[in-house]
Amino acid sequence: MASGPDIHPGASADPVVLRGGQPDTAGVKNMWLLIQLRWIAVAGQIATIAFVHSVLGVELPLIPMGLVAGALVVLNLISLIWLREGHGADDRGLLVALLLDVLALSGQLYFSGGVTNPFAFLFLLQVTLAAVLLDVRMTLAVLVATCASFALLTRAYVPLRIPPGEFDLFALHVIGMLICFVLDALLLFFFLTRITRNVREQDARLAALKQHAAEEDHIVRMGLLASGAAHELGTPLSSLSVILGDWRRVPTIASNAELLHEVEEMQAAVKRCKAILTGVLLTAGEARGEAPRVTTVKTFFEELLEEWRAARAPVTFEFKNDFGADVPIVSDSSLKQIIFNVLDNAYDSSSDWVGVYLAREKDNLSLRVSDRGSGFDPQMLQHFGKPYQSSKGRVGGGLGLFLVVNVVRKLGGSVSATNQSQGGASVDLKLPLSAFALGARVDGG
After folding, report:
1. Structural domain spans, the chain
2. What CATH number was assigned to the domain covering residues 294-441?
């Protein structure tokens, strides 16, 4: 009888979420497809048995054939419960599922004429699915099972009892072969295209993981270089700070307001450089015994923006705070540094005006930094966040936004960049507040 397949209302080919929030795998998706195939098998078997028994008047052992169809229903229900509870599906699970389908098809054919039943060629569907889903050894197991079943059905089966003289048996056999061929072709077309799509999606995920691994390796190398540079630059910056302090006491400079102002600006720049290097060493784990500083979202951003304004002094700086009720967080040096990077990029594009908009979207912090410069080049937007993509033309430039994207991604957030219709560009950062919650960050994790 037909061991073909109908899509059950409860079964979905969409990805499911595994236990612990892990994304669906190709194995799980393929198991969903086999479940759908089995529902079609049950529906096809019931419809064929009803037609042959009621319309053609062929006597069939309805009870044992119904038990086989019922066993397929039970198998599908168990498979559905297994997947919906978040369990995975590996090659061994797919092999067992295919072998059980072969067994069920063999049982139905045994009670309906064996290989004289034109639907015996549905065995080829099982072999094809195995060849696509499984490795060579497991496919060989399915091949041996189908060949053995076909061979046994040539000798052992319950003959069909067709009323004599009412039908042309050869014509019925040809019609049955035609239906079997069409069913095989349709099922192979629909299910193999979906299985191929699953494989392509898995390949895309693997390619993305490789890309992320390469980027993280690049960041590690940069971190090592930055840590070494921080050690090396500490001494000359301390010397510069001492020299500038001595210059302020020189009578010629102390009596000249313009020169004194320039010395003060240089001292502020050196102080900021030293603060940046301290942040690099803290992030790299060089500084020990520093307890995490508890603050709030509003205080953190007000202090951060005030420090940045004092260092860069844009002509116009607009800050709009729509965050709402304040939330306690742990001050994060890496977040502070990436926001400085975004602000510096905006200032370099338009020193006349920089805008910052802070808001809250459910459990996420949303920050937009805007400028009125020339905007991003279309090619740069296409490769946003990739290393060495810069509009400034400096050798080795373009690492700032690369670090921003990767740090934000590590914190569970996202970064996007757009060109504004009225001119200029904006960079949007979205970060989960849980990444800075007291329990999540006190340990430095």
Report:
1. 19-167, 214-283, 294-441
2. 3.30.565.10
Question: Looking at residue 257, what is its pLDDT?
Answer: 85
For residue 366, what pLDDT is reported?
A: 94
- What pTM value is reported for the model? 0.46
Once rounded to an integer, what is the mean pLDDT over residues 368-377?
Answer: 90
Reported as a single tens digit per residue, the pLDDT across 298-324 is 999 999 999 888 888 888 999 999 999
pLDDT at 8 over 70: no
CA distance 339 to 413: 13
